[in-house]
Write a structure and sequence with these properties.
Structural class: mainly beta
Helix content: under 10%
Shape: globular
Strand content: 35-45%
Length: 162
């Protein structure tokens, strides 16, 4: 496969090998695995394992994600296990997020648990890097029950009535 392609104007643009794009018109039923970066603008019904995932605005994913870097702009129903997670303003995420660092932009929809851990990609005795196996839902559920989650408490001032 060549590492360059011609644009509409005839100019050459470089393309990083190992990057994969799932276009808007593509629907995949089953697990997706890559040793590189995945740009998902279509729909996947299954788990995704890769180095980096960018879920585009039109992208839909029903399944779990394991990656070093995850950027979500579209819709995700499932868990995320990643070192770095970014939930951008237009995203919709329903599921638990296990991470070392997370960023949520104003306007992002997130319903689930956020759990910071030193090794978020570690699942059931194996590391999920590159094209490793996706997270097992039962293992994630068992881990969730055993570990405390971060809770945010806010104290409201007491009202003083006469």
């Amino acid at each position: 496969m060549p590492d360059t392609f011609r644009g509409a104007d005839g100019s050459q643009a470089s393309r990083k090998l190992g990057d994969s794009t799932i276009g808007e018109d593509l629907i995949i039923t089953g697990n997706v695995s890559s040793k590189g970066e995945i740009h998902l603008d279509g729909q996947v019904n299954g788990d995704v394992s890769c180095i980096a995932l960018v879920l585009g605005e039109s992208g839909k994913l029903e399944g779990n994600v394991i990656a070093e870097d995850v950027v979500i702009r579209g819709r995700l129903v499932g868990s995320i296990r990643a070192l770095r997670v970014t939930l951008q303003a237009m995203c919709h995420v329903e599921g638990d997020v296990y991470h070392q660092s997370i960023a949520l932009e104003q306007g992002a929809f997130f319903e689930g648990r956020s759990s910071r851990t030193e090794d978020p990609m570690h699942v059931g005795g194996s590391l999920a890097n590159g094209a490793a196996k996706p997270a097992d839902a039962e293992a994630v559920s068992a881990e969730r029950k055993d570990k405390p989650t971060h809770r945010f408490n806010r104290s409201l001032p007491e009202s003083r009535s006469a």
